[in-house]
Write a structure and sequence with these properties.
The chain is an alpha/beta fold. Helix content is 34%, strand content 14%. Bound molecules: alpha-D-glucopyranuronic acid. Its EC number is 3.2.1.131.
């Protein structure tokens, strides 16, 4: 039976799968070959397109030798479970896959191509994802948390999965989410917060049926379900006196708990664990290493083919700000590099892309280049915690692409080293536009496509998103959207924390400027600005030694302020306000100039958006326009606070005599 396309609740935006995106697929004679649940998903999609736009779809070729415009079929080709090939000859476009997921990805490929999929003739192309795991982590709480709310760092309403302290009863919206994810290539979702509070801990045991219900609706879209678990579960849920990973009773408890999980969800993906991190329990309490902790869970999952994603976000969050010897940036490398080679084959170490925490600009984590014998997953943050909280436009494609293309050593890029996959903290919620800011949908889409192909040009992905989301857009609209999004990350960087210094945000919620908000805090996030200069000395010669965690040539390049790239200068060095950048400007003048420029760029983007009012549905246009007002207000606040702060510290006036307070 073909699987019906999910019915979106009234008022919910179809995002990058509006019906019109299927126009080219719809008007055809289509043959679908093969069987299996995902083939039914494919059939349902084509049938719906035909219902809207004409054409018809059959499952068995007619004996009379009828011809077809589109043939989608499972074939003998060995393209893995997710790959597909396509070609066009003699008026027929053929998509062949070895597995159901590949066929579904092939169909969405045809949707992206639109009319071009049915024009002329073209030779066979094969498509396979570069990374096997392309995952979203939801920081969703089952029960509303008194400080963090329903979704920790969520800026898009409530959770898609949970409401009123339990799994939603109606999961049609989750099904629609699974469909959107499949269309951009995402194949795994962790459905609860990495900070596992007590209610969430129970999902693993007595509430696993709620997770199973979610897994059931994601499965037809090839999306596997994962669960964040508490390292202390044997104590909290099992009543054992210890969670020591080498204790036999603890290991048995995990073995049995995991067996039951697989009873409920046979294709369960595995566990996500935040251990010994920001107060979460972990193996350190028992004098055990993180490899011992991770391997215990890996052993429980191994018989069922599951994976443990063990997060490397381990650092001292109770640091004394007076202590200049401790450097949070060093922590992940210092903790984990000695363990390289000790992790089980189904244990993946999940590393944030930068050494700190998803700032608008950080160097690429040195850990990613330093554990060749460990499966690594790289984690990015689609939810815009530090990048404007979905009130500001900040398209992160270029940042992620820079990270993925970075080479610690010539042999391999980050995208190639991420053998354990690419993971993003999701930015989606139950908001009618999914992501709060309608343009933030582009981040979710771009993430999926870059996870499929880390060396893709992000600008092409952006245009793909525009083409799908606004299928009938005249050029003025697509150009306007492209202009609004393309440079928005660099714009955001300009009016916020300069030259890689980061962290000048309001503590707690992390929105808006507060230059000294974290300066005397225990979080290890300082800028050390005084009357003479600013920045953190992380050199080997005179600083914390962090620069030495990189291989050559980076260690040498970052070591000296003369060779360190401008955009990371204050991350690696403490320099005077008069220090001359490679750009030829003094640091202080760079701060003034970029802050004025950043605001001017937001004003321009707002103007461009206002000019598109006649081409965008009123609801979407108004939502974005309203957010531009807030972005501009906030950007001006950033500009004026940052500029005034540094003017007051340094006493150096703006060369161009602009207003500083
Ligand atoms: C950040 C974020 C937290 C989150 C943490 C994590 O510090 O502010 O809310 O829990 O990252 O990645 O675990």
């Amino acid at each position: 039976m073909p699987l019906p396309v999910p019915a979106l609740p009234e008022g919910v935006d179809p995002a990058w799968l509006p019906p019109a995106a299927f126009r080219a697929v719809g008007g055809r004679r289509t043959l679908i070959r093969g069987s299996g649940p995902l083939v039914e998903t494919v059939h349902g999609e084509v049938a719906e397109a035909c219902r809207r736009f004409g054409g018809r779809v059959v499952r068995e070729a007619r004996p009379d030798g009828a011809t077809y415009d589109l043939v989608l079929g499972l074939g003998a080709d060995d393209l893995g479970d997710e790959g597909f090939s396509c070609a066009r000859a003699d008026g027929t476009t053929t998509v062949t896959a070895s597995g159901g997921r590949g066929l579904l990805y092939g169909l969405f490929h045809v949707v992206r191509l639109g009319e071009a999929a049915f024009t002329g003739g073209w030779a066979r192309q094969t498509h396979r994802p570069a990374l096997d795991l392309r995952m979203l982590d939801h920081w969703d709480n089952v029960a509303v948390h008194p400080v963090m709310g329903q979704v920790e760092r969520g800026y898009a309403g409530g959770s898609l999965f949970w409401a009123d302290g339990r799994a939603r009863g109606d999961l049609e919206r989750v099904r629609a989410y699974g469909r959107l994810l499949a269309a951009c290539g995402i194949n795994a979702v962790a459905v609860n917060n990495v900070n596992v509070h007590e209610t969430e801990a129970h999902l693993l045991t007595d509430r696993i049926h709620e997770v199973a219900a979610i897994a059931d609706v994601l499965r037809p879209y090839g999306v596997a379900t994962h669960l964040s678990v508490s390292f202390a579960a044997p104590v909290v849920l099992g009543g054992l006196p210890t969670a020591d990973p080498l204790d036999e009773a603890v290991r048995d408890w995990w073995g049995e708990a995991t067996r039951r999980v697989y009873e409920a969800i046979p294709d369960f993906g595995g566990y996500v664990v935040k251990a010994d991190s920001e107060g979460q329990p972990g193996p350190f309490a028992y004098g055990r290493s993180h490899a011992e902790g991770a391997n215990m869970l890996a052993a429980a999952l191994e018989p069922f083919g599951g994976t443990v994603h063990w997060r490397a976000f381990v650092y001292n969050h109770r640091q004394d700000w007076r202590d200049r010897t401790t450097d949070r940036a060093r922590a992940a490398y210092d903790h984990f590099v000695p363990l390289d080679g000790e992790f089980a084959a189904n244990a993946v170490l999940q590393v944030k892309h930068g050494p700190m925490d998803f700032q608008v600009r950080e160097p690429v984590s040195p850990l990613i280049g330093a554990m060749p014998r460990t499966r690594l997953a790289v984690e990015v943050q689609a939810t815009q915690e530090y990048t404007g909280q979905q009130r500001h436009v900040c398209w992160l494609g270029p940042m992620w692409s820079e990270v993925l293309r970075f080479r610690h050593e010539p042999e391999a890029s980050v995208g190639e080293r991420a053998r354990g996959g690419l993971v993003a903290v999701s930015n989606a919620g139950d908001d009618p536009f999914w992501t709060g800011h309608p343009l933030a949908q582009a981040n979710l889409y771009t993430f999926g496509r870059l996870a499929w192909r880390p060396d893709a040009d992000p600008c092409e992905v952006l245009d793909e998103w525009i083409g799908l989301t606004f299928p009938e857009a005249p050029e003025r609209l697509s150009d306007g959207l492209h202009a609004a999004l393309d440079g928005s990350w660099r714009t955001y960087e300009k009016y916020t924390a300069p030259l890689g210094v980061g962290w000048m945000v309001q503590p707690g919620h992390h929105y808006g400027p507060s230059v000294d908000g974290y300066e005397y805090s225990p979080w290890g996030t300082y800028h050390f600005a005084d009357r003479d200069g600013i920045g953190v000395d992380r050199s080997v010669a005179s600083g914390t030694g962090y620069a030495g965690q990189y291989a050559k040539p980076w260690a040498e390049l970052y070591e000296s302020p003369d060779t360190c790239p401008d955009e990371l200068l204050l991350f690696f060095h403490h320099v005077s306000y008069g220090h001359t950048l490679h750009s030829g400007k003094a640091v202080i003048q760079h701060i003034y100039d970029t802050h004025f420029e950043g605001v001017a760029e937001v004003e321009e983007a707002r103007r461009v958006w206002a000019g598109l009012a006649d081409l965008v549905e009123p609801g979407r246009h108004a939502r974005v326009a309203e957010r531009y007002e807030e972005q501009l207000r906030s950007a001006r606040e950033w500009r004026d606070q940052i500029n005034s702060y540094f003017f007051r510290k340094s006493g150096v006036p703006d060369e161009r005599g602009r207003r500083i307070y």
